[in-house]
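Record minuted for everyone:
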Amino acid sequence: MSARVAILTPDPADEAFQSRWREVVERNAEPLRAAGMTVEGRCWTEAEDLAGFDLVMPLLAWGYVRAYPLWLDKVAEWQADGVKVQNPPSVLAWNADKSYLQRLAERGAPAVPALFVDRVTEQVMAEAAAAFGADRLVAKPRVSHSAWRTIRWSPGDGIEDGPEGAAIIQPYLPGIETKGETSLIYFGGGYSHSVGKLPQPGDYRVQPEYDGIISAVEPAPDMLEAAERILAAVDEDLLYARIDLAPGLDGRPALIELELIEPDLYIGYDPRRGSKFAAAVLREIESHPSR
């Protein structure tokens, strides 16, 4: 009997349901099915019958940031019900709030400097600029993804399109415009593949939603070293991880995001077409069988 795997998908009531998630589900599912697994998609807000799966992955739970309290409730519910979820429920909780960047930095991860505030105001932004010694900043909600309500700010700019509540403020990294971001993908603690993501000219957002230019790349040795330091700062064992790096103000690789909940794994850019992903999933199922 083949292993049954569930991939959690967006809530039909959320705007993410109108996005490209269906094609991403298929890309993620293809190597799993090729390895003999049965893969099903389940809406994360309505998934009430997950106990029968050998493994549940929230890889396409896009939109949870707009229903954050419900997300935390669901994660706690899955844990209490003994649902086999990976990454672990503890990770699904703390990785949703970008304050984790401060904790990782305190453990030696090379992260972009950050200031965490309850609310963004023009005065707060001016004070942050002075503290960082920077004339350009980025502000985003502490719970967000895909550049949602993210702004690039300079003195004199407005904040109308920025975060409405608790936020993270960081110095703007100009290297993103020319060198972009590099995403390193790991499965079961082992490196798999990487992609480079460049923004459109004049932009700083590299996500596909903003027509970011994506290509397969080989990471430089200092990027791999940075990624290992970042993973070493995490206590839990991780089934999958995407480490987004960009040139810091000093030119060295710096952590933008550690994506452990619903990252695009860019399987289509993997020369092995997800075979390491499938192998890691099978190892997880075999070593920790569901109840």
Remarks:
- The chain has eight helices and twelve strands.
- The mean pLDDT is 91.
- The chain has three domains: 4-91+271-287, 100-111+175-260, 115-171.
- Helices lie at 21-34, 68-80, 89-94, 100-106, 122-132, 175-179, 221-232, 275-287.
